[in-house]
Amino acid sequence: MSVPELGVKEIDQLLADHPAWELAREGKAITRTFQFADFSEAWGFMSRVALQAEAQDHHPEWFNVFAKVEVTLTTHDAGASGGLSHRDAKLARAIDGIV
């Protein structure tokens, strides 16, 4: 079952509400890089995000090196070939609340 993609106005609002996030993958994803004091702080952040993601049944793509965490949000089953959905907006809001 496909999840409805966000429209252009909804994406614009998502980026306005979460200015630290950037559009990626030709408008099919948003991404944000977080820099922490050390690995322990980065890992703690990832643990808190993981709990939120599991509760929402929507999981980020992420990459971690020491104190840096790069997070990408997209909905793989949105529209015909994946894209941004309300799931991404909800998880971005939760992640911003954690930081």
Word description of this protein:
This protein starts with 7 loop residues before the first helix and ends with a helix. The protein is an alpha+beta fold and 99 residues long. The protein has helices at 8-17, 39-56, 86-98; strands at 22-24, 29-35, 61-65, 68-73. Strands 1-2-4-3 form a 4-stranded antiparallel sheet, with helices on one face. Strand 1 and strand 2 form a beta hairpin. Helix content is 41%, strand content 21%.
**In total, how many beta strands?**
4
Estimated share of beta-strand residues: 15-25%
Looking across the biggest beta sheet, what order are the strands in? Answer: 1-2-4-3
- Approximate shape: globular
> How many alpha or pi helices?
3
Structural class: alpha+beta
Summarize the helix and strand pattern as letters. Answer: HEEHEEH
Radius of gyration: 13 Å
Alpha carbon gap, first and last residue: 32 Å
Mean pLDDT rating: 95
Main beta sheet strand tally, sense and closure:
4 strands, antiparallel
Low-confidence stretches: none
**Fraction of residues in helices?**
40-55%
